[in-house]
């Protein structure tokens, strides 16, 4: 049978490749996934990935810091905390026109989502007025919008949602057990409250964490367990590799084994089958092979553009070349990017065309 006449694996609706969405994974079960032989783990993650997503599509977001530095929080990883001297000055909230200009440039470069971040503990009402206008102006360009502004209460979340904000990012960062080593100025419960407020207001949730902060393997499993408990799962799960910024207390923390990072991506993919898992900060320090493995493990979103908030990200040209090398394409903005149970004829034909060189993997999967 030729590859083109078979339905591609990611349209397969058999229960083996479409396990139930669960929120009750035990720590032991998650640790057992981490302990699988690497090839078995990646194979399983890839199977789950193909059951829900086009495996060669990657969602592309661009970040902009709309208010940089002098943050009152003491997050030990963060170059923007006012507690550490990282050489960043205190900047005011960017003017709306500058934000719109950057969003237009991001769209022209190929981004589908524009994420705006502010170094706040939480937004003040008068700042929120400006921020809401930014949301409207960026959405009007035809981009999806995401903001990360610190803690938000129900009123603030509802104002953001009414302005049309699509996603709100608020990371859990690490396990509840390790959290106290990293941040003392807000609690884990504060973070969970913000996530609940965002969900209640009707926005999509973007929440993940940072690896490579000296945490134990159990902390990685525990972080993922916390994310998995959120019901529904966050639509977007950024997995950041710590960017070690001179002047922060984490500047000299020991490097994490990149293969352990890949394992965490694969486990996130298995636990949260329908979420976009973002290979987030730290790509500039990663070689192409590590990034390719992350995509194989189920990562299907990246930050695109030469800077993250204050630190570097791969140049746009480098990312374009990497996509070409790997045969990846940017995921279009479309609500129907997830492969849910019903496949239309058109979607299937489209899928088969994209998957024409997929015969090898398919044969292995049926092995
Ligand atoms: N101030 C807001 C807050 O923390 O809620 C939003 C901005 S904050 C910079 C957004 C996220 O960036 C943090 O939660 C953290 O996960 C990530 N981040 C910050 N510094 C980082 C670093 N050096 N390496 C990796 N991720 C980092
Ligand atoms: C996320 O999880 N990572 C992004 C975004 N969400 C806001 C931020 C990464 C910041 C890396 C350090 C910096 O550039 O300042
Ligand atoms: Fe402030 Fe956010 Fe950085 Fe923490 S991570 S210091 S809250 S900007």
Automatic annotation (TrEMBL):
Chain residues that bind [4Fe-4S] cluster: 71, 75, 78
GO molecular function, one term: iron ion binding
Domain Radical SAM core, residue spans: 56-283
Catalytic activity: (4R,5S)-dethiobiotin + (sulfur carrier)-SH + 2 reduced [2Fe-2S]-[ferredoxin] + 2 S-adenosyl-L-methionine = (sulfur carrier)-H + biotin + 2 5'-deoxyadenosine + 2 L-methionine + 2 oxidized [2Fe-2S]-[ferredoxin]
Binding site for [2Fe-2S] cluster: 115, 146, 206, 278
InterPro entries per UniProt: Aldolase_TIM, BATS_dom, Biotin_synth/BioAB, Biotin_synthase, Elp3/MiaA/NifB-like_rSAM, rSAM, rSAM_sf
Pathway: Cofactor biosynthesis; biotin biosynthesis; biotin from 7,8-diaminononanoate: step 2/2
EC number: 2.8.1.6
Top EC class for this record: transferase
Cofactor binding description: Binds 1 [4Fe-4S] cluster. The cluster is coordinated with 3 cysteines and an exchangeable S-adenosyl-L-methionine.
Keyword Lipoprotein: no
A biological-process GO annotation: biotin biosynthetic process
Keyword Iron: yes
UniProt cross-references to PROSITE patterns, sorted A to Z: RADICAL_SAM (PS51918)
Keyword terms of this UniProt record: 2Fe-2S, 4Fe-4S, Biotin biosynthesis, Iron, Iron-sulfur, Metal-binding, S-adenosyl-L-methionine, Transferase
Requisite cofactors: [4Fe-4S] cluster; [2Fe-2S] cluster
Cross-referenced NCBIfam families: bioB
Annotated family: Belongs to the radical SAM superfamily. Biotin synthase family.
Subunit structure: Homodimer.
Role played: Catalyzes the conversion of dethiobiotin (DTB) to biotin by the insertion of a sulfur atom into dethiobiotin via a radical-based mechanism.
Protein name per Swiss-Prot or TrEMBL: Biotin synthase
């Amino acid at each position: 049978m030729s590859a083109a006449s078979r339905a591609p694996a990611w349209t397969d609706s058999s229960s083996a490749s479409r396990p139930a969405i669960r929120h009750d994974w035990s720590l032991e079960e998650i640790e057992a996934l981490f302990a699988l032989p690497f090839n078995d783990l990646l194979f399983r993650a890839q199977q789950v990935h193909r059951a829900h997503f086009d495996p060669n599509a990657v969602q592309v977001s661009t970040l902009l810091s709309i208010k940089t530095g002098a943050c009152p929080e003491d997050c030990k990883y963060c170059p923007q905390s006012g507690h550490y001297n990282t050489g960043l000055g205190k900047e005011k909230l960017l003017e709306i026109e500058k934000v719109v200009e950057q969003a237009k440039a991001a769209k022209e470069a190929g981004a589908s989502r524009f994420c705006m971040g502010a170094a706040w503990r939480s937004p003040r009402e008068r700042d929120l007025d400006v921020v809401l206008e930014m949301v409207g102006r960026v959405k009007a360009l035809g981009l999806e919008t995401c903001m990360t502004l610190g803690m938000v209460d129900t009123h603030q979340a509802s104002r953001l949602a009414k302005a049309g904000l699509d996603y709100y990012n608020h990371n859990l960062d690490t396990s509840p057990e390790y959290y106290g080593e990293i941040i003392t100025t807000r609690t884990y419960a504060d973070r969970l409250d913000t996530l609940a407020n965002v969900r209640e207001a009707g926005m999509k949730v973007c929440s993940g964490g940072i690896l490579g902060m000296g945490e134990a393997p159990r902390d990685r499993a525990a972080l993922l367990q916390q994310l998995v408990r959120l019901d529904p799962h966050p639509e977007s799960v950024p997995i950041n590799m710590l960017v070690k910024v001179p002047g922060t207390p984490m500047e000299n923390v020991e490097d994490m084994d990149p293969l352990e990072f890949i394992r965490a991506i694969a486990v996130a993919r298995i636990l949260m089958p329908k979420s976009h898992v973002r290979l987030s900060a730290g790509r500039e320090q990663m070689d192409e092979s590590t990034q390719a493995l992350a995509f194989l493990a189920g990562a299907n979103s990246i930050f695109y553009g030469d800077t993250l908030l204050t630190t570097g990200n791969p140049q746009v040209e480098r990312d374009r070349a990497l996509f070409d090398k790997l045969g990846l394409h940017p995921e279009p903005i479309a609500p129907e990017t997830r492969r849910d149970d019903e496949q239309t004829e058109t979607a299937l034909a489209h899928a088969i065309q994209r998957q024409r060189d997929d015969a090898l993997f398919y044969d292995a999967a049926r092995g």
